[in-house]
Design goal:
14 helices, globular
C-alpha cells in the first residue's frame, strides 16, 4: 500500500509540475499584459509602470520569473496579485472553500441519485418508465452545461422560488443558526441542481452499462440458479463486482464537476474560484490565473489519488501487481 500510494503521489507531483510549466508558457504567449490599461492612463507615468514591473519581477526573463514563483509557492504564497497587491494564496483559499462546498455537495447528491436510478432503469429497461428515464438522461446528456445553468437561473427569476446570486442574503450575520443554515441551503439549491443535472446522465449510463456487463457474467447466472433473491443478487454480488469502473468514474466525475462548477459559479454568481479566475483573466492578473489553475489541478489530482487508493483497496489484482 505504501509503495503504491508513494508512486501515485509522485505521478501527481510530476503532473502538477507539468501543469505549472504549461500554464506559464501559455500566459507568456498570450497577448497583452496587466500594464496595458495603465499605459493608456495619462495620470500614470512610464517610470511608474517600469517601477511596478520591477517590483513584481515582470521585467525578468521567463525562467527567472518561474523560479521566483516556485520559491514563493514553497512559502505558501503562490505569487503576488497585481490587482489586489497581496499574496495569491489567501485570495484563493477564501474562494476554494466555497467551490469545494458546492462541488462536494453536488458530487454526493449526484451519486446518491445515480446508483439507485441506474439500478432501477436496468431492472425496468423494458417498461415505459424505464424508457422514459432513459430518454430523459439522453436528453440531458446533449444539453450543454451553460444552457442547464441558464435554464435553472431563468426558472428562479420567473418563480422567485430561490434566491439568485451570491452565497448569503443581506443581514445574514443577524440571523439565527437555523435561519443561516436555511438561507445558505436556499442559495446552494440552484448551482447544485445545475451541476447534478449535468453529471447525472453520465453516471447513470456508466453505472447501467457496468452492471449490465456484470449481470451477464457466469457467476451471476450460477448465483441466480441457486435461487438467491434479486435484491441480494444486485446489491451483494453484482454491485461490488462492478465497483472498479465506478470508482474510476468517481475520480473523473469529481474532476468534471470541479471544472463545470467554475462555469456555474460565474453564471449563478457563486463566490468560488470561477468568478475570481474570470476577473483575473480579464485583468491579466497572471499570478492569480496561475494560482487558480494550479489549485484546480491539485484538487483534480487529489480526487484521482483518492479514487486510485479506493481502487487499490477494492481490487486484489492491483494489490498483487504493485507488490
Amino acid at each position: 500500500m505504501g509503495y503504491y500510494a508513494l508512486n501515485r503521489v509522485l505521478h501527481g507531483v510530476l503532473l502538477a509540475f507539468a501543469v505549472s510549466v504549461f500554464t506559464f508558457a501559455l500566459l507568456e504567449l498570450a497577448p497583452g499584459s496587466y500594464f496595458d490599461e495603465l499605459k493608456a492612463n495619462p495620470n500614470i507615468s512610464q517610470d511608474a509602470i517600469t517601477l511596478l514591473k520591477t517590483r513584481y519581477g515582470l521585467d525578468q526573463p521567463l525562467l527567472i520569473r518561474y523560479g521566483r514563483w516556485l520559491k514563493s509557492t514553497s512559502h505558501g504564497d503562490f505569487g503576488l496579485s497585481l490587482a489586489y497587491n497581496a499574496p495569491v494564496a489567501p485570495l484563493l483559499l477564501r474562494r476554494a472553500k466555497n467551490t469545494m462546498m458546492l462541488t462536494g455537495l453536488a458530487t454526493m447528491l449526484a451519486w446518491a441519485i445515480a446508483i439507485p436510478l441506474g439500478l432501477w432503469t436496468l431492472t425496468n429497461k423494458s417498461s415505459w418508465r424505464g424508457h422514459a428515464v432513459e430518454m430523459a438522461t439522453s436528453g440531458l446528456l446533449v444539453v450543454p452545461d451553460m444552457i442547464l445553468a441558464l435554464a435553472c437561473l431563468w426558472i428562479a427569476v420567473r418563480t422567485h422560488a430561490f434566491p439568485v446570486g451570491g452565497m448569503t442574503s443581506l443581514g445574514f450575520d443577524e440571523l439565527s443558526v437555523w435561519a443561516k443554515a436555511k438561507d445558505l441551503a436556499l442559495h446552494l439549491m440552484l448551482p447544485v441542481l445545475a451541476l447534478v443535472l449535468s453529471t447525472l446522465p453520465v453516471l447513470v449510463r456508466h453505472l447501467r452499462s457496468s452492471m449490465a456487463e456484470v449481470l451477464s457474467s457466469p457467476f451471476i447466472s450460477a448465483a441466480r440458479a441457486h435461487g438467491i433473491p434479486r435484491r441480494s443478487l444486485l446489491f451483494r454480488y453484482a454491485l461490488p463486482a462492478a465497483a472498479n469502473p465506478l470508482i474510476s468514474l468517481f475520480g473523473l466525475s469529481l474532476a468534471g464537476l470541479l471544472s463545470g462548477s467554475m462555469l456555474v459559479e460565474v453564471i449563478m454568481g457563486w463566490p468560488g474560484i470561477g468568478p475570481l479566475l474570470l476577473e483575473a483573466i480579464l485583468a491579466r492578473d497572471v499570478y492569480v490565473v496561475i494560482g487558480s489553475v494550479m489549485l484546480s489541478a491539485l484538487l483534480v489530482i487529489f480526487a484521482n489519488l483518492v479514487a486510485d487508493l479506493l481502487l487499490y483497496a477494492a481490487d486484489p489484482r492491483i494489490r498483487s501487481v504493485s507488490v
